[in-house]
UniProtKB/TrEMBL annotation, chain A:
One of its GO terms (molecular function) is ABC-type sulfate transporter activity. It comes from the Bacteria. One of its GO terms (biological process) is quaternary ammonium group transport. InterPro entries: AAA+_ATPase, ABC_SmlMolc_Importer, ABC_transporter-like_ATP-bd, ABC_transporter-like_CS, CysA_C, Mo/tungstate-bd_C_term_dom, P-loop_NTPase, Sulph_transpt1. Residues 3-235 form the ABC transporter domain. Belongs to the ABC transporter superfamily. One of its GO terms (cellular component) is ATP-binding cassette (ABC) transporter complex. Keywords: ATP-binding, Nucleotide-binding, Sulfate transport, Translocase, Transport. SUPFAM superfamilies: MOP-like, P-loop containing nucleoside triphosphate hydrolases. Gene3D superfamilies: P-loop containing nucleotide triphosphate hydrolases. This is Sulfate/molybdate ABC transporter ATP-binding protein. It holds the Pfam family ABC_tran.
From TrEMBL, chain B:
NCBIfam families: 3a0106s02 (TIGR00969), permease_CysT (TIGR02139). The keyword Transport applies. One of its GO terms (molecular function) is ABC-type sulfate transporter activity. The keyword Transmembrane helix applies. This is Sulfate transport system permease protein CysT. The complex is composed of two ATP-binding proteins (CysA), two transmembrane proteins (CysT and CysW) and a solute-binding protein (CysP). The chain crosses the membrane at residues 12-36, 56-82, 94-116, 128-152, 180-202, 208-230, 242-262. One of its GO terms (cellular component) is plasma membrane. Part of the ABC transporter complex CysAWTP (TC 3.A.1.6.1) involved in sulfate/thiosulfate import. Probably responsible for the translocation of the substrate across the membrane. It is found in: Cell membrane. Keywords: Membrane, Sulfate transport, Transmembrane, Transmembrane helix, Transport.
UniProtKB/TrEMBL annotation, chain C:
It is found in: Cell membrane. The keyword Membrane applies. This is Sulfate ABC transporter permease subunit CysW. The keyword Acyltransferase does not apply. It is a multi-pass membrane protein. Residues 65-272 form the ABC transmembrane type-1 domain. Its main location: membrane. The complex is composed of two ATP-binding proteins (CysA), two transmembrane proteins (CysT and CysW) and a solute-binding protein (CysP).
Length: 340, 273, 295
């Protein structure tokens, strides 16, 4: 089912949570809504579900205007941030709930068979008789997903699906959710504040800030072509260097980078730590190492430029450096935005 | 056990134990001792006399009816206070505690004044052929009045704390209001409802002040058990008073036990492991 | 364009159902709770101000008021001290029998006041354990102020403790342990660390305890002997006047206690705004939602 949002607006009391967001999600696509807290991502998800009503704009499911369809008739599967499992029902009863209350009557045997299938799908065979209080967080998350899938939703919506889990459980569940999505091909929209999660899982990432979409695209597009300092900074660690642009070249320190299409004048270069190098001699920004942090896959250097800015560099483990060393930081690649 | 860091346990525990022993344990033990010293046959004769049995019957049935009424009204009241916003809501919320705060004797004469045949409500009900004052119905009304807060105040906070996501989840799965209420909300409130109901019922069984004004106090028909114990005292029949009071005491303990068991059962799903 | 701030309906939000339920609850509340309060005032003033004033100024009524206030002045502070001590012992320490002690403290809450009164007779009455000894020593407990105070303390035993225990349990022991580790004495710790955190809950318990002491009827009526002008508390005096067919006098006396009840309710609301009462208390719902760490 294709979903289309057309200039959707939502205001809570005086706080404008969503400002005219337009978005299309293709049938079978897996899309992440990524943004910091307060960016309106959960509100958008809840409006798609029908758990909030939009104040303005339209939401279409396929060609049907779904803006005012109540949640119970909208045919969405919603996985809540803290799962919202019914604590007084067993895992199997939780999964069966949607089928039991459905207008479409199913026999007990049918429901039991479907519950067994879903338990197998989410790899929880044998846990059907447990209560939610008796299983782990990761297992609860999978029950919540099975429960949402039980009603054959047209759209699957997940609110911070891995937010409450430990880092290692999170990674496993992420891969597993991707597999399930590939198997079932349900249009899926999920909300996260974790860029790694969004990039790892989604076909397309929609980045939000202050209730507006700032950029959307495939993980490759948003990673390689971030369109603003915000997106650049939100997707990973960034260094910011002041530069002067003239004639399509940005001068930083005693080095220069090509800056096609950037107007002459003051600009800022945003560089990932791994796109900076450390040399003892050569062209670059003169700097002094403040600290060296060793990591399994390399070293991170904290260095202060002679302008007083602190830079972070990720370098190969064999690079020799220690606090107090003086040298030069060179920029391998960076994104240049006019200062503003 | 960890070494105690804070001071004051001997003093605090000392005060507590002395108070509890003198004020609570000693009198109740004296009552039990007095009742036990009767001997089984005498005890049985007193507690199973026709008048005593009739008093149990009217007390228990009235308490049951009052609790049933409060279950419906108290639940509706808690629901309205938690789920809806309307002018006067906070005022009603405060008023719920009036039966706690109003001395029972005052409640008794006020309810009697209202429901007596010449009272505001009694005269209207009288025309419909319903007599409240000086009948078991009057006992029921007095019990319902005094025990209402128990039901409202145990259901209300739980209803307030119900995670709204549970209801949203049920809605997103297609549940109708009726099925969500029956399958999700009501089961989650059950422990609180049971607690409130047993507290209200226990309170009704032991209520005295509010009832004696409105009940009529006729032996075999409108005489509650607590009053019978009181009457035996006034007749200087201390043994009988002890025996009947012990029945009330045992019932209270049974109710406490039942409350705890019911709650433990209703909460069994939170057990881990 | 849709209207602003529309919320999707929750269970029971259909306008018709909502209105009907609110209306039904308001009507029953008016009949069941408001009317009894109103009728007290109406009856008290049914024969005019003069009769009301005379009824209140009656020496027996004044004496009943005095006795009730005296009882409260003795019973409430003792009860408060007990409640604080019990809460301190139960929440700040682990000891054998702690849970059992909690149950025992709550017992008076579920026992008929008549049972309490009868039980006291068998301790201090002539038929009781200490009765003969007390009589020969010429100490009067029953049918006198001490008996009234003791019975009042029984029925209100849990009132202060049950407000403090859940709150102090939730607050834990860290602050007190920090204070003692910094060298504060036990009393100092209590007065400068514990008390400021529990003062509203404490006051809340005291207010409820006071209301119950002043209004207690059943237990006191057994142990007081109902001697007019001597051992009649205000609630007992109301009964006496009522059975003497002095309805206006009975309701005049009742109106004093009704005012006390209203004052108690107002105090309760004000204290709840400061976090006392059920606001600060964990509910059964705490056990119901699956525990989860919030991100």
């Amino acid at each position: 089912m294709k979903i289309r949002l057309d200039t959707v607006v939502k205001t809570f009391d005086t706080f404008r949570a969503v400002h005219g967001v337009s978005l299309e999600i293709e049938s079978g696509e897996l899309v992440a809504l990524l943004g910091p807290s307060g960016s309106g991502k959960t509100t958008i998800l809840r409006m798609v579900a029908g758990l909030e009503y939009a104040d303005g704009g339209k939401i279409y499911f396929g060609d049907e205007d779904a803006t005012d369809i109540p949640v119970r008739d909208r045919g969405v599967g919603f996985v809540f941030q803290h799962y919202a499992l019914f604590p007084h029902m067993t895992v199997a009863e939780n999964i069966a709930f949607g089928m039991k209350v459905s207008k479409v009557k199913r026999s007990k045997a049918e429901i039991a068979a479907r519950v067994a299938d879903l338990l197998r799908l989410v790899k929880l065979d044998g846990l059907g008789e447990r209560f939610p209080g008796q299983i782990s967080g990761g297992q609860r998350q999978r029950v919540a997903l099975a429960r949402a899938l039980a009603v054959d939703p047209k759209v699957l919506l997940l609110d911070e699906p891995f937010g409450a889990l430990d880092a290692n459980v999170r990674r496993d569940l992420r891969r597993w959710l991707r597999e399930i999505h590939e198997e079932l091909a349900i249009t899926t929209l999920f909300v996260t504040h974790d860029q790694e999660e969004a990039l790892d899982l989604a076909d397309r990432v929609v980045i939000l800030k202050d209730g507006k979409i700032v950029q959307q695209g495939t993980p490759e597009e948003v990673c390689r072509e971030p369109n603003s300092p915000f997106v650049m900074g939100f997707l990973g660690d960034t260094n910011r260097l002041p530069a002067n642009v003239s004639g399509g070249r940005a001068v930083v320190g005693n080095a220069a980078l090509p800056a096609p299409g950037v107007a002459d004048g003051k600009a800022e270069i945003f560089v990932r730590p791994s796109d900076l190098d450390w040399t003892e001699h050569g062209d670059g920004v003169p700097a002094k190492i403040l600290r060296v942090i060793d990591r399994p896959d390399g070293r991170r250097l904290l260095a202060a430029t002679d302008q007083g800015e602190t830079l972070e560099l990720d370098v190969a483990p064999e690079i020799q450096a220690k606090a107090g060393d003086e040298g030069f930081v060179t920029v391998r690649r960076g994104r240049i935005f006019a200062a503003g | 056990m960890a070494r105690r860091v804070l001071p004051g346990l001997p003093l605090a525990l000392g005060i507590t134990l002395v108070y509890v022993s003198i004020i609570v344990v000693l009198p109740l033990s004296a009552l039990v001792y007095k009742a036990a010293s009767l001997g089984f046959e005498d005890y049985w004769r007193i507690v199973s006399s026709g008048r005593a049995l009739a008093s149990y019957r009217v007390t228990a049935l009235s308490a049951l009816a009052a609790t049933a009424f409060n279950l419906v009204f108290g639940f509706a009241l808690a629901w309205v206070l938690v789920r809806y916003r309307f002018p006067g809501r906070r005022f009603i919320d405060a008023l719920v505690d009036l039966p706690f705060a109003l001395p029972t004797a005052v409640a008794g004469i006020a309810l009697t004044a209202l429901f007596a045949p010449n009272g505001w409500f009694g005269s209207i009900l009288g025309e419909a052929g319903i007599t409240v004052a000086y009948t078991p119905l009057g006992i029921m009304i007095a019990m319902a009045f005094t025990s209402l807060p128990f039901i409202v105040r145990t259901i209300q906070p739980v209803l307030e704390d119900l995670d709204p996501a549970l209801e949203e989840a049920a809605q997103s799965l297609g549940g109708s209001d009726a099925s969500i209420f029956a399958r999700v909300i009501l089961p989650l409130l059950t422990p609180a409802i049971l607690a409130g109901v047993s507290l209200a019922f226990a309170r009704s069984l032991g209520e005295f002040g509010a009832i004696i004004f409105i009940a009529g106090n006729q032996p075999f028909s409108t005489e509650i058990t607590a009053l019978l114990a009181f009457i035996r005292l006034e007749e200087y029949d201390y043994q009988a008073a002890a025996a009947i009071a012990s029945v009330l005491l045992i019932t209270a303990f049974l109710m406490l036990a039942v409350t705890n068991i019911l709650q433990a059962r209703a909460l069994r799903y939170t057990a881990r492991g | 364009m849709a209207s602003k701030n529309r919320k999707p309906p929750r269970v029971g939000d259909q306008p018709g159902f909502r209105r009907a339920l609110i209306a039904a609850v308001l009507v029953v509340t008016a009949i069941f709770i408001v009317a009894p309060l109103v009728v007290i005032g109406v009856q008290a003033f049914s024969q005019g101000w003069a009769v009301y004033a005379t009824a209140i100024a009656d020496p027996d009524t004044l004496h009943a008021i005095l006795l009730t206030v005296t009882t409260a002045l003795i019973a409430v502070p003792i009860n408060t001290a007990f409640g604080v001590a019990a809460a301190w012992a139960i929440t700040k320490f682990d000891f054998w029998g702690r849970r059992f002690l909690l149950v025992v403290i709550e017992i008076p809450f579920s026992i008929s006041p008549i049972v309490a009164g009868v039980a006291y007779l068998f301790v201090y009455g002539l038929q009781g354990l200490f009765g003969p000894a007390l009589q020969s020593a010429d100490i009067k407990i029953l049918f006198a102020l001490p008996g009234i105070v003791l019975a009042s303390m029984f029925v209100t035993a849990p009132f202060v403790a049950r407000e403090l225990i859940p709150l102090m349990q939730a607050q834990g022991r860290d602050l007190e342990e920090a204070a003692t580790s910094l060298g504060a004495s036990g009393w100092r710790t209590f007065f400068s660390v514990t008390l400021p955190n529990i003062r509203w809950a404490l006051l809340y318990g005291v207010v409820l305890c006071n209301a119950r002491v002043m209004g207690e009827f059943g237990a006191v009526s057994v142990v007081s002997g109902n001697i007019r002008g001597q051992t009649n508390t205000l609630p007992l005096h109301i009964e006496l006047l009522y059975h003497d067919y002095q309805t206006a006098g009975a309701f005049a006396a009742a109106s004093i206690l009704a005012v006390l009840a209203v004052v108690t309710l107002v105090a309760k609301v004000l204290l709840e705004r400061r976090g006392a009462g059920r606001g600060g208390r964990p509910t059964l719902a705490a056990n119901q939602t699956v525990p989860e760490t919030t991100t």
